[in-house]
From TrEMBL:
InterPro entries: Amino_oxidase, FAD/NAD-bd_sf, Protoporphyrinogen_oxidase, Zeta_carotene_desat/Oxidored. NCBIfam families: proto_IX_ox. It comes from the Bacteria. The keyword Flavoprotein applies. Coiled coil: none annotated. Keywords: FAD, Flavoprotein, Heme biosynthesis, Oxidoreductase. Pfam families: Amino_oxidase. Its cofactor is FAD. This is Protoporphyrinogen oxidase. The keyword Transit peptide does not apply. GO terms for biological process: heme biosynthetic process. It comes from Acidithiobacillus thiooxidans ATCC 19377. Residues 11-433 form the Amine oxidase domain. GO terms for molecular function: oxygen-dependent protoporphyrinogen oxidase activity.
Amino acid sequence: MDKIIIIGGGLSGLASAYFLQQQGVQSRLLEAAPQVGGNLLSIKENGFLRDAGPNSLMLKGQVVPALMDSLQLQQEIVEANPLAKRRYILNRKRQLVPLGPGVLSSGKLLSLQGRLRLLSEAFRGRGKSSAEESIAGFVRRRLGPEVLTWLVDPFVSGVFAGDPERLAVAATFPRLVKMEQEHGSLFRAALAGRKNPTKPRLVSFHNGLQALPLRMAERLEGLLQCNTPVDLLQQHEDGTWEVFSQQQSWRSEKIILSLPAHKAAALLATLQPTLAAELKAISYPAVTTLSLGFPRSSVAHPLDGFGMLIPRTMGLETLGVLFSSTLFPDRAAPEQVLMTAFIGGSQNPLRGRSDSDLLQTVLHEIRPILGIAGEPSFSRCQNWPEAIPQYELGHLARLERIAKITRQIPGLYFRANWSDGVALGDCMEAAQQLSQKLAH
């Protein structure tokens, strides 16, 4: 009998197995796909290196940097270009303006009324923020409607593929709520934070972000089984679990489900229908990433930044564009540039549209913005039907209900981005916490 079986070989499952191994606890990790990593997918093709899912990792705190050392990945790390600090946003005149104090004071993005409303934030008292306040409600209350429209909405739709009217601020941005409660103002909190600044590092790897799960898989050799979709879970009267996959089965004392919420729900539908219903209610919008290569001479914009975001009020479907070959070296063939565009999300459901349609839509929209002439020299689409879990209003209460039910089921644990945070670092930190709990 195994001590622990982990189902799901994405980053959360891999990190859970690896941290358990570091604690001296052997687990069995089952992954349905031919390879590990989930949506961490790096592909070399035609002189381009594209990340079809997440594109970068934030190194901060202690857990993730220490993990890089343990995995001997430090030599593989590539730092983001310093230009990544510059981020562009599309304004009313369809001009790209770099974000920063200058643009906020110049009127290129916010009206005079919007700027005055923003500056008044420091003089507004604490609000009555709650778990049921949306990001949009919080931003309107603290910073004003223009900041929501021109800054926060494009960030939320571009990074989280979400709708700020539906996402809960306490679940998605708990730090903002804490800043308001502790300092009474976001501005005052930001000033206080400057006294003890931390400098997280934005990084990738020489062969793309997939190097991280692949290195973990190497270290878990003998414990990891790919091409092993789990069909059924059973819990016996003695509390032990049995996991069935095709013609095989394994017994285990404990189970960690490191799966998207809807897939975990499918496995638990018969055993725990109430728990399964809670999991199934967590939504995942579809997103398509488009990797686009162009001759450098065909793009007028200098691409001297992280990328650009597009406010939804502009009526365009493209969520944003990452300047991939600026962000990290060796992402494009010589004399070429690589961009990664995003389309879809909860505010723009894709509804089964073809790759060709999405490609033409994105090209039509970004050509005049970036000054692109001609057709791309390289293009690939990657569809993610369930891209990013949405921490919608009521999410924290749902997690509490899930935790309450789970406490009554001996040996069942979850580790996934629908509960631990969608950032890669959050998932790895949560995996370490669970491994320490289960190892003692």
